[in-house]
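Supplementary Text 2. Reproducibility record for the structural model of the 71-residue chain.

All settings were left at their defaults, and a single model was retained for analysis rather than an ensemble. We include the record here because the model underlies the residue-level annotations in Supplementary Table 4.
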Amino acid sequence: MGRFILAFPSVTVAMKAQTLLRREGFGCNVIRTPRNLASGCGYSVVLDGSIQLAAAVLEKWGISPKAIGRV
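Retained model, structure tokens:
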């Protein structure tokens, strides 16, 4: 468990990821991706919880982040 940031290529994908994760009980919010995590424009989901469980939820729906970091 912890606090993580998952970077996505667009706000649309980040919003979809947030919706799916919230349905599964994760606390999360969409933010602009910090420059130190990815270059170019993009959006991220800040997640409170297990990164393994969150990744499994997203994988089930065919979504994978561009980058993952700890907050």
